[in-house]
Amino acid sequence: ARAAASSKRHTVLGASTNGSRQMASAVLRRLGRIPNTVLQRCSYASHAAAVPLSEPLEGVEIARPSPTQPEDVKVTRLSNGITVASLENHSVSSRVSVFIRAGSRYEEFDKRGVTHLLRDCAFLNTVDRTAFRISREMDFIGGTLSSTGTREHVVYSAEFLREGVSGGNLELVMDTLGSVIHSSKFEHWQVKDNKSRVKLEIASAQEQPTQVVLEALHQAAYRNALNNPLYCPPYNLPRLTSDDLKSYVGEHFTGKRITIAGLGVNHDELVRTAQAFSNIPEGIELTEVQAEYIGGSEVMIPSSSPIVHAMVACKGVSVQNSSKDLVSTGVLQHHLGVGPSYLKWGSNTISRLSKVVTETVGATSVVSAMNMSYSDSGLFGLYAVSDHGSIGKVLKAIMHEFSEVAKGNISNEDLTRAKNQLKASYLMSSESGSVTVEDIGLQTSYKASYTPIANTIKLVDAVTKDDVMKSARMVFSTRPTFVALGNLSNTPRLDHLMQDISLK
Question: Are 50 and 427 in contact (CB under 8 A)?
Answer without folding.
Answer: no
